[in-house]
Amino acid sequence: MKRRIIYGMLVAVLGLNLLFGARLYFGTAQAATKDSPYSSLELFSYVLEKVRTDYVDGTNLTYQDLVYGALKGMVNTLDPHSAFMPPDEYKQLQDDTEGQFGGLGLVVAMKDGFVTVVAPMDDTPGFRAGILSGDRIIKVEGQDVEKAPLPDVVKELRGKPGSQVTLTVERASGVQKNFTLTRAIISMDMVKDINGKKEFPLGADKIGYVRITQFGDQTGDELEAALNKLKQQGMKALIIDLRWNPGGLLDEAVNVCEKFLPRGQLVVTTEGRDPRENSVRRADGHGDELDGMPIVVLVNLGSASAAEIVTGCLQDLHRAYILGEKTFGKGSVQSIFPLDDGSALKLTVAKYYTPSHKVIHEHGITPDSLVPMSDEEQADLIIKRSPGGLESLDAKDRVRVENSRDNQLDRADDLLKGILLYDALATPEKVAAK
């Protein structure tokens, strides 16, 4: 009797094991099937062929059209900075990197679902018209582009130099404005002085000023030349203006930072899902070329990407005082993967981190001193800094813009004057030498 009971229990246990095992196996197999590349590709192929043969307006559809559209849709779901680029869009990107193209001079990105102006480039149609960082482009040629993919909107903005395009932007205040702009060849100077030139004069207060408009191939070299001119004149403090700087090359951001840091100092790290995307970038220059000289960095919403790397690094290491408004918050790394048919995949593969491991992406850099400027003040400043800007205004507006003040620059100047005065008073031999 006992043996029969034991056998019965054993059979019951084995039966339960088989039941649960089968459920576990089939559940796992079903889950694997749901995320299987083979079944998913089979589904994709079926839909592709169905659209190709049965879509009512699909007479001229090609397999390439459909696959390109599918790839765009897939990559666009990842994040605003990843993109599949057909050959013509990839060629546009290459033209941008070479530093010259036809367009409006607006650096744009997707933010909160809208095509948003990161910054207007200096001396370009968008800059001269008074388009501001943070403006949302909602219409191009009267057509709604609020939900259009970013590459499609960029394609609409680009065009033959001399041709015109009308766009509607919406400001943070909710005000909408229409602009009719004439496209031009866009070429970029990277480092300028207070007058938009490369002379770099130094006033009686001995406070130097450099404006870095973008981080391109020559930014580090241009900054080196500017610093040498200012040092030869006896510079004692420096203002670095990164407002409306949309970023650029990581190497050049590191190159700029290392001019103010000791050799070997950590500048920025990148971290991604693939360990091969992880990197540590350190200063590899000749040490601090300004020997601890006081520095103020000016930033605003138009300061993005590489400009934020420089800002975050110098702030973390207490090498510069940051003044202005919170930066854009574009701190991700995109790699370009060229494809055999001339197209390319731009994929976000990592994020930037400051020396103290603060993430830049979607957070931005908060200044040490917040000094806001209204839309009107920013627009006046852009016109004032733009070649021919004042001449384009009527007499009344010209007087207003001429008399407008750059409050952020004024605050930076006052701060450095105070530091220099304090240093002079704290050092008796400096006072005696005056």
Tally of contiguous helical segments: 13
| Portion in helices | 25-40%
Strand content: 15-25%
CATH-level-4 superfamily name of the domain at 191-372 and 404-426: 2-enoyl-CoA Hydratase, Chain A, domain 1
What distance lies between the first and last C-alpha atoms, to the nearest angstrom?
Answer: 114 Å
The fold-level CATH name of the domain at 191-372 and 404-426 is 2-enoyl-CoA Hydratase, Chain A, domain 1
Assign the CATH class of the domain at 191-372 and 404-426.
Alpha Beta
Order of strands, widest sheet: 10-11-12-15-16-19
Shape, principal axes of CA atoms = globular
Radius of gyration: 28 Å
Average residue pLDDT: 86
Sequence stretches where pLDDT stays below 50 over 5 or more residues:
1-32, 430-434
Q: In brief, what are we looking at here?
A:
Helices cover 39% and strands 22% of the residues. By secondary structure, it is an alpha+beta fold.
Written description of the protein model:
- The protein has helices spanning 2-34, 37-54, 63-76, 87-98, 125-129, 150-157, 219-232, 250-257, 306-316, 375-385, 395-403, 407-426, 428-433; strands spanning 83-85, 100-103, 106-111, 114-120, 136-140, 143-144, 164-170, 176-182, 184-187, 191-192, 207-212, 237-241, 266-272, 279-282, 295-299, 321-324, 332-338, 344-353, 369-370.
- The chain is globular and about 85 Å long.
- 33% of the residues are buried.
- With 434 residues, the protein is an alpha+beta fold.
- A hairpin with a 2-residue loop joins β5 (136-140) and β6.
- It is built from 13 helices and 19 strands.
